[in-house]
Amino acid sequence: MARYTGPKTKIARKFGEAIYGPDKVLSKKNYPPGQHGVNKRRKTSEYGLQLREKQKAKYTYGVLEKQFRNLFEKASRKKGITGEVLLQLLEARLDNVVFRLGIAPTRAAARQLVLHRHIVVNGKVVNIASYSVKPGEVIGVREKSKSLEVIADSLAGFNHSKYPWIEWDEATKSGKFLHLPERADIPENIKEQAIVELYSK
Known about the structure:
Layout: H1 8-15, H2 24-28, H3 46-61, H4 65-77, H5 82-91, H6 94-100, H7 107-115, E1 119-121, E2 124-125, E3 138-141, H8 149-155, E4 166-169, E5 174-177, H9 192-199
Antiparallel strand pairs: 1-2, 1-3, 3-5, 4-5
Helix pairs in contact: 3-9, 4-5, 5-9, 6-7
């Protein structure tokens, strides 16, 4: 399955949440897309609810099915609560950290910056969006990319204090990944336990 590149509003309406950021259409049409979306009131099964949470997490972080499954299996082998560890692994992806640092306005834009070699980790260019950032590593913008309009616009007025697991250095336009985030600090509205139950069947 290829990465979803269709209308993001359609996906946001499917879940009834602005998973890609502020959405003007969603505020006017807060019901599923399609001919019968506004009248759809069928009760969703337990499996359906679990599948919905997995799909929401995949779309939110821009991860493909196989990548997501691999991350889940990795999380299940680690110590701790599997669902929380899964979210921590997703948060540690390089494209997500670039987004959290405010270097890019969306995760999709962050992925583009990584793939186009605008991002460095500990001073070295890393162009793998799924790279797992480790505590202590410094993520920054390549010197010749610091003047890019998309980066400057995204960083303008960004509140870097809202994520306690990363530390921003304005002078060098770089951020340090201090530690994996606690579940309470991850703002995404995802019921990770439902995902664990889905994969445990």
